[in-house]
């Protein structure tokens, strides 16, 4: 499926690190990127021929210095931004090695009740759904 400009969506792997208490990690988009300063779940673009989970693992090492040990596919969302049509593949990981570090100069924060703003538009509708998993 392509958007009204005829562009095919860009596949993006997105990871939700979830602590046993339900806290999740959000990162702030760095300066110079579209929507800089907005908060989102970390991740990045899937390279040609790359498996989505492999892309997620690579992005977490590159951006945060975290090695994802296991992750479950959660949901997929398509969103058309002014700058890109993205297909977001969300994974939840409860097992990783390492503490997140700001390797690309981005801020990040563990959140129970999400209090950071502004949130990336594609992230907002997922929070209520995610809360049902975090706090059943």
Question: Could you explain the architecture of this structure?
Answer:
The strands form 2 sheets. This protein has a 4-stranded mixed β-sheet, with helices on one face. It has a 3-stranded antiparallel β-sheet with strand order 3-2-7, with no helix packed on it. The protein has helices at residues 52-64, 124-134, and strands at 10-17, 24-28, 39-40, 43-45, 67-80, 85-97, 108-111. The protein contains 2 helices and 7 strands, in the order E-E-E-E-H-E-E-E-H. The model has no long low-confidence stretch (mean pLDDT 91). The chain has a single domain (10-134), classed as Alpha-Beta Complex (Nucleoside Triphosphate Pyrophosphohydrolase). It is an alpha+beta fold and 136 residues long. Helix content is 18%, strand content 36%.
How do the strands and helices of this protein lay out in sequence?
Elements: E1 10-17, E2 24-28, E3 39-40, E4 43-45, H1 52-64, E5 67-80, E6 85-97, E7 108-111, H2 124-134
Parallel strand pairs: 1-6
Antiparallel strand pairs: 1-4, 2-3, 2-7, 5-6
């Amino acid at each position: 499926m392509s958007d009204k400009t005829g562009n095919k969506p860009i596949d993006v792997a997105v990871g939700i690190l979830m602590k046993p208490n339900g806290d999740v990690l959000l990162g702030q988009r760095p300066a110079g990127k579209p929507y800089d300063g907005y908060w989102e779940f970390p991740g990045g673009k899937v390279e040609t021929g790359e498996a989505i989970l492999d892309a997620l693992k690579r992005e977490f090492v590159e951006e945060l210095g975290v090695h994802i040990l296991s992750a479950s596919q959660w949901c997929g969302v398509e969103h058309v931004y002014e700058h890109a049509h993205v297909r977001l593949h969300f994974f939840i990981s409860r097992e990783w090695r390492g503490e997140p570090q700001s390797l690309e100069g981005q801020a990040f924060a563990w959140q129970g009740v999400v209090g950071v703003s502004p949130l990336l538009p594609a992230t907002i509708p997922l929070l209520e759904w995610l809360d049902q998993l975090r706090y059943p």
